[in-house]
Amino acid sequence: MPTPSTAGKTSAFSAFDHTTSVWGPVTLGLGLLISLAAALYAAFGSGAGVTPLELVTAVGAVLATFGIIAVIEPVSYFPILGRSAMYQAFLIGNIANKLLPAAIVAQAKLGEKPGTRRSELIAGSAIIGAVLVHITTLVLFVGVLGTWLVGMLPAPLIATARTYILPAIFGAVILQSVLAMKNRRTTIVAIAVAAGIVFVVVPLAPALTYFATALAVVITIVASWLARPRTATSVPTPEAQAAPVSEPTH
To answer: What is the pTM of this model?
Structure first.
């Protein structure tokens, strides 16, 4: 029998889910309309001379190159972010190099594994914090000091920094993911699959370059599932059933 505190928590999560299901699509849809309106005005209302055929060609080229990512990213991010944080992340952008690392670091710091309701709330809070820090640093260090600093730095140093910034960011994300997941078997499978895709599959079949991420994600999921422990699931005791647990995100 659920306790009053458990019932209150369930009711609060239900209200939160209802609010998310209403305002999440609304805000994301408004963001889409505003961004499309700005792009269409720049193409056809500013005198740039873009023809409808050129627009369709450009959109088709982008879809052919990055369309698979539009499917893979939501599937990959959802277990970590949860539904409400997903709406935040895709409305804000810069997910892989800013919002996802912030969520993973916050969850690891608070000792919460991805996939629970608490981890979803932590991810949303971390995204808010990341955005506030980002805006503040943009105003201070980019708007005020950025131009002056870049002008003072030598060109070879800037080129070297650009070469290593992205690998450094993704290296930190991978490390935080490994520490938060704490699953040695899945980590080994993911590293082996990614290495095989990058160093074996893509050199042998360059046409698969744009599908490398999708292949790595799908093969890692399947291989991790096949390599999972085959131990029998134990029946929970009444004491274990009464213990409070975090609710799943889905």
So the answer is: 0.59
Mean pLDDT by 10 residues, the chain (250 residues): 66 86 92 88 82 84 76 86 91 86 89 87 92 87 78 83 81 76 84 92 87 84 85 51 47
31-36 long-range Cβ contacts below 8 angstroms, 24+ apart:
31/91
For the chain, first and last CA: distance in Å?
A: 22
**Quick check: 120 and 83 in contact, CB under 8 A?**
yes
Integer Cα distance of 182 and 128 in angstroms: 26
Beta bridge partners of 116: 248
* Residues 98/228, Cβ–Cβ less than 8 Å: no
